[in-house]
Amino acid sequence: MAFATGIGSMPGTDFAESLRIVMGEVGDLVHVPELPDRGVHAGMIGRTLAVLDGLGADLQPDGWRIGVGEGADLRRARSLLAQDLDVAEEIAGMHDGLLKLQVTGPLTLAASVERPRGDKMLADHGARREIAESLAEGLRAHIAVARRRFPHAQVLVQVDEPSIVPVLTGGIATASGFSRHRSVHPPEADALLRAVVEAITEAGARPAVHSCAPDVPVELLVGAGFTAITFDLSLARPDDVWAESFEQGTDLWFGVVPSTDTSGVSDKVLADRIEAFFGHFGFGEETYAERLVVTPTCGLAGASPTWAQKALSTAQSVAARR
Questions:
Q1: What is the pLDDT of residues 8-28, one digit of tens each?
Q2: 118 or 173, higher pLDDT
Q3: CA 242 – CA 250 distance, rounded (Å)
Q4: What is the CATH number of the domain that holds 193?
Q5: Domain total of the chain
């Protein structure tokens, strides 16, 4: 049986309504939605900073900054997360299927937040390690809370790494904008990701990773221990590494449904794209049908409410074809 789910974000500001839509359209693999329209406190970075253990943060003119104490903005982010989990427990507390949480990964987090004296944490090896360790410890507690709130659910944690490719290739600009941060080499990236993966696994959840960037570093992600990779099929080249990873047990979650409003989307055409990708490697439907997850290409925050619901229902329809 194939599944469908959303990447994470939804449009609007009504968390309860968004969760009801998610449960109504992709109820076999429910994701706890993120609503960035409520402000930076509810966006992917603010949401993840609320999970960190032992690192304070506050919002500065240039964005989030670590190591400046726990400011009012971080308290707001934590309060919003707690409120959303309260609502989610009320609505979905008896859910007995798969339940997905989302957090920003350590590489994207380091490329997005600043050190106490400015510039990204990406600039400093020790800072990169510190934020990965803080995220890992925070996730242990976050997952424990989720497992108490949703005692019948199987918890998955999706680690979002939209900036992983520029982090690995030296594509993140410095604060001045005149140069680029040095690339993070694969062995260090592996260690940072692995710390998060191990924390998720030891807490009793399943680790998945999402990146809607081109040239997703499949080998690195598989090596770090992720059990599923979520990606935008339109940006993926059918390199042999995908087939090798699938054969080794890593599930592939196909982002095929447009994440912004469009028309003329055919379930059959989208299903055929997935079939063609697997067929390139000689995999028949009997090989992948039980391990397939269909998603939008990216988060749905930029979609209209009508399309966000349609995108999820379309993903479910494509999954049902398998």
A1: 999 999 999 999 999 999 999
A2: 173
A3: 9
A4: 3.20.20.210
A5: 1
Three-state secondary structure call for residue 237: coil
Residue 64 neighbours by CB under 8 Å, 6+ apart: 40, 45, 46, 49, 57, 58, 73, 112, 113, 114
DSSP class of residue 180 equals B
- Domain of 284? 3-320
User: In the prediction, which pLDDT does 154 show?
Assistant: 97
Q: Is the pLDDT of residue 122 over 80?
A: yes
Tally of residues, the chain? 322
The CA–CA distances, whole Å, from 170 to 152, 174, 184, 236 equal 43, 10, 7, 21
pLDDT of residue 174: 84
Buried b (16+ CB within 10 A) or exposed e, 286-297: eebeebbbbbbb
The stretch 172-178 carries a mean pLDDT of: 80
Distance of alpha carbon 65 from alpha carbon 56, whole angstroms: 9
**Encoded tokens for 173:** 């600009």
Closest CA to 63 of 85, 30, 96, 41: 41
- Per-residue pLDDT, 284: 87
> Given this model, what pLDDT does residue 69 score?
72
Q: What interhelical angle do 305-320 and 267-280 show, nearest 10?
A: 50
Name every residue whose Cβ is closer than 8 Å to that of residue 132 and which is 6 or more positions away in sequence.
106, 110, 191, 192, 193, 195, 196
